[in-house]
């Protein structure tokens, strides 16, 4: 086993962006046309990572909770939805433009004295008045002219509303009783003015949202419970817990629907930023949908004398694509290898939890010749039903380990001449670079064990 010394753990946005492109995690959208601001494409490793994060969250919410069910609602919803939800009126950013250099700013993100003196923070030129700019993408449905106001439809800015409009359907079809939750993962769209920091804030992104319906009066208790559960989720995922903190929204930050709200913030390379929101949305949404749709959305409480009331909603809302960025930053490490030996002197490694790593196990024949490649393919075929596998036979074995380290592959299996002789293989661990020898027949069960018992140590 090599002695390892950590000499530089911290990820920078430059390193993450460059690794993401080089290894096929994330590409700029429409790159050959100069790129599309606010949109990104997820390459072969990126889509695997994104899917696994989504599956992991889905399991956490649905498989591990009797009282939470799933939903996949449409992105296009009746436009009245967004009047009822308050988004048409309130989902706005305050904008100012510089009349001289034409730069555009969010008025709440530049020094207040610039706004009051109406002076550009960049060139000192005059600023326009603050205007409200709605973040919803507006388009038209049906065969209409683009200036026809009758057929306006919006791309959803949050997945939550698809859940609220289906809440009665789900109570009826699945005989749900309070408290219960509905989970959903899907795309959301916001016409963000500032889209910097790679995939942190984009115009097209994905959310993982869960809406938990509770009896009035129990909302504060459930709000605290969900704060605990969401914190525990990141702990289980092996995230560096000293990189997470809570931030309670002050009165000036609370969204129009929220009675109370906390963000889980992560220490990204560019500083502490919101990762997920836990919100007490009170009775706001269902009351508004009742008013706007004319449908009675009260819950009939059979356990309390058939009383009718509007439930409170506790929401947990995480960005899937933002979580992906967090996992890249959190997993990234660089290590100097004191014992140079067979391996290179320095490595970049992504220490993903094995449940979200894009590739779980890579199978590497020491040589292509002498039947080792065929043997390795055979072993890979045995593993691929149960694990996400990769096969790599090109180049020196040390370099191949490096490639897998950089892709975040937690386990490598090496096939050599001894495998031919006695059927044993080498299992190499990404984090420690430790290698053990075991019979090929024990490989799958050992991998299952290792995944279940995984604890991040670096
Ligand atoms: N339904 C509540 C809601 O949408 P939010 O705080 O506006 O609340 C929830 O968004 C989460 O969605 C954020 O914590 C973030 O992870 C993600 N998110 C929001 N806007 C985003 C954007 N423009 N790009 C990427 N992720 C975004």
Name the descriptors.
single chain, alpha+beta, BirA Bifunctional Protein, domain 2, Rossmann fold, 2 domains, 5-stranded mixed sheet, 14 helices, binds glycyl-adenosine-5'-phosphate
Précis, in short:
By secondary structure, this protein is α+β, with helices and mostly antiparallel strands. It contains 14 helices and 24 strands.
Structure description:
The protein is built from 14 helices and 24 strands. α2 crosses α10. It has helices at 13-22, 44-63, 80-84, 87-90, 112-117, 160-164, 167-174, 219-236, 284-293, 320-331, 372-383, 397-407, 417-422, 443-453; strands at 4-8, 26-28, 40-42, 68-70, 92-97, 104-106, 131-134, 138-140, 152-154, 180-189, 204-214, 244-248, 260-268, 271-282, 299-301, 307-309, 312-319, 332-337, 346-350, 361-365, 389-391, 411-415, 424-429, 435-439. The model is unreliable at 1-8 (pLDDT under 50). Helices cover 30% and strands 28% of the residues. The chain has 2 domains: 13-77 and 156-327, BirA Bifunctional Protein, domain 2; 344-453, 3-Layer(aba) Sandwich (Rossmann fold), CATH 3.40.50.800. The protein is globular. Strands 4-10-11-17-14-13-12 form a 7-stranded mixed beta sheet. By secondary structure, the chain is an alpha+beta fold. The chain binds glycyl-adenosine-5'-phosphate (GAP). Glycyl-adenosine-5'-phosphate binds next to β11, β14, β17 and α10. Glycyl-adenosine-5'-phosphate is lined by residues 158, 160, 190, 192, 201-202, 205, 207, 209, 274-277, 315, 317-319, 321-322.
């Amino acid at each position: 086993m090599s002695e390892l010394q950590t000499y530089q753990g911290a990820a920078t946005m430059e390193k993450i962006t460059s690794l993401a492109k080089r290894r096929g995690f994330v590409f700029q959208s429409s790159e050959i046309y100069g790129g599309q601001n606010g949109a990104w494409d997820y390459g072969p490793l990126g889509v695997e990572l994104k899917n696994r994060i989504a599956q992991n969250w889905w399991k956490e919410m649905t498989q591990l909770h009797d009282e939470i069910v799933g939903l996949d609602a449409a992105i296009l919803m009746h436009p009245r939805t967004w009047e009822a939800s308050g988004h048409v009126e309130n989902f706005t950013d305050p904008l100012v433009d510089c009349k001289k250099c034409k730069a555009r700013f969010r008025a709440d993100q530049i020094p207040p004295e610039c706004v009051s003196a109406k002076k550009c923070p960049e060139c000192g030129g005059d600023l326009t008045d603050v205007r409200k700019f709605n973040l919803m993408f507006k388009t038209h449905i049906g065969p209409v002219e683009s200036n026809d106001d009758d057929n306006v439809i919006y791309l959803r800015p949050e997945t939550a509303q698809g859940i609220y409009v289906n809440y009665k359907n789900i109570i009826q079809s699945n005989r749900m009783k309070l408290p219960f939750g509905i989970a959903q993962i899907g795309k959301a769209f916001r016409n963000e003015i500032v889209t910097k920091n790679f995939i942190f804030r984009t115009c097209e992104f994905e959310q993982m949202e869960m809406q938990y319906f509770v009896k009035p009066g129990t909302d504060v208790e459930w709000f605290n419970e969900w704060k605990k559960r969401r914190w525990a989720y990141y702990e289980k995922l092996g995230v560096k817990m000293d990189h997470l903190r809570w931030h309670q929204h002050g009165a000036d930050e609370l969204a129009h629907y929220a009675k109370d709200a906390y963000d889980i913030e992560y220490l990204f390379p560019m500083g502490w930023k919101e990762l997920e929101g836990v919100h007490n949305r009170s009775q706001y949404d269902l009351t508004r949908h009742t008013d706007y749709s004319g449908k009675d959305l009260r819950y009939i409480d059979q356990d309390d004398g058939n009383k009718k009331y509007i439930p409170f909603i506790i929401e947990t809302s995480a960005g899937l694509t933002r979580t992906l960025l967090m996992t890249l930053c959190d997993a990234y490490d660089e290590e100097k290898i004191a014992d140079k030996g067979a391996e290179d002197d320095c490595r970049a490694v992504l220490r993903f939890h094995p449940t979200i790593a894009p590739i779980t196990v890579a199978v590497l024949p020491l040589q292509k010749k002498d039947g080792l490649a065929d043997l390795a393919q055979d072993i890979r075929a045995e593993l691929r039903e149960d694990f996400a596998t990769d096969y790599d036979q090109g180049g020196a074995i040390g370099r191949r380990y490096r490639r897998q380290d950089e892709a975040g592959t937690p386990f490598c299996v090496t096939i050599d001449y001894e495998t031919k002789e006695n059927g044993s293989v080498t299992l190499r661990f990404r984090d420690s670079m430790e290698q053990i020898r075991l019979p090929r027949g024990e490989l799958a069960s050992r991998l299952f064990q290792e995944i279940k018992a995984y604890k991040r140590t670096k």
